[in-house]
Amino acid sequence: MKKTKNKAFLFCFILLTLFTASGCQNLFIPINVPVVLRNNPALNNPLPQQISIQSYTMVSPGIVQDITNNGNNIILFTFGNTYNIDTYNTETMLLSSFINSDKRILSALYDSFDTGIYYAEKLVDPITGSVGSQIIWSDVNKNTTRVISLPEENVIQHFGIGDSGQVVYANNNNQIVMADSEGNRHVYDILNNYNILAVDYINNNEKNLVFIATDPQSEERTNLYYAKIKDDSAELSATLIAENVSNFDINDITNQLVFIKNSGDSQTIRTWSSGTINSIGIATGNYESAQFTPNGERIIFTQTTPNSDSRMKSLWIMDVNGKNPLQLTAPLNINSEIICHPYKSMLFFSVEKSSDNISSADDHTLSQTHLLTYRID
């Protein structure tokens, strides 16, 4: 009995020593919960920066979509018997219903003045069964709702927001449309008839559109293009930025792009500025997404571990030049965009829960949105 007690004491002493040496970090990492993976303080050449999580909370069921310019509200999707758009107030921590629909909501963004929400809604013809989608705008007070796209248009899911409250989307005619909530429209025909998959607006002195489209020579490849808007023309000539691109993000302050370029078995994070010819590669690895922090000084990105479950992604942050990469979380089943607070070190993202632990009557809570606050020293 005495030997058993001595062994137990020795085991506890070793655990306490390891816990202290790890900088008070948990030794046992919970599954599917963000945990900072700190740099080993025993390293001879520690990184110049350290990062720590200040708080981590589940704010609401649902999948996060966007945040207002002041950071006070986020958009959430919840799916149950209906498809719902909810808003969550980050100050009061109150959830409010915004839209309840029997049609599936595909994506949603606040307009540039936060006066309303544009959203893409899936349509199914009850007679032919054909599938389409339309763009709708509703003001934040839920007093007015308007269908923005035309009945004959089938719009893409991934649209953008212009500088004056407009929505920017592509339709089944491979046109790019800029339309506002009052019904004013500008339709642009893209030369070469690209099949556009995602589009956004970059507000610089020349007013460019940036979009991902399938390669005219190979439908299996998607490329990144930009096109300058000319006041005297309804035609746009697209210029190739990079081939084999999976996603992109635009920073409204610096007017830079960051995007993921697929290169065989790995991906490269690259940045590009309008007016330049070539993009700049800043990191190579197994990346899923990349986006700027609102001030444009850093890049938030997700990456997978080779030969692991592709749904599990760890969250990282690095300087805009690719230096000082710091890992924020252990791998998580993230199923949303990473939404940055406009002026605080806060991230919102959604994690899909294991369906093994959820009853069929609770399907709408399969996804939960979390708030993570961090600090970089």
Annotation keywords:
377 residues, mainly beta, 5-stranded mixed beta sheet, 4-stranded antiparallel beta sheet, 1 helix, 48% strand
Distance from N terminus to C terminus (CA atoms, Å) equals 48 Å
* Widest β-sheet, arrangement of strands: 10-11-12-13-17
Instruction: Encode the helix/strand succession as letters.
Output: HEEEEEEEEEEEEEEEEEEEEEEEEEEEEE
Residue-averaged pLDDT: 84
Strand content: over 45%
Q: Would you report the number of β strands?
A: 29
Shape category: globular
Low confidence ranges: 1-33, 36-44, 357-364
The main sheet comes to: 5 strands, mixed
Helix content: under 10%
Count of DSSP helices? 1
Radius of gyration: 23 Å
Structural class per helix/strand content?
mainly beta
Could you describe the 3D structure shown?
- The chain has one helix at about 1-20, and strands at about 50-60, 65, 75-80, 85-90, 95-100, 105-110, 115-125, 130-140, 145, 160, 165-170, 175-180, 185-190, 195-200, 210-215, 220-230, 235, 240, 245-250, 255-265, 265-275, 280-285, 285-290, 300-305, 315-320, 325, 340, 345-350, 365-375.
- The protein has about 375 residues and is mostly beta strands.
- The longest helix has 20 residues, at about 1-20.
- The protein is globular, with a radius of gyration of 23 Å.
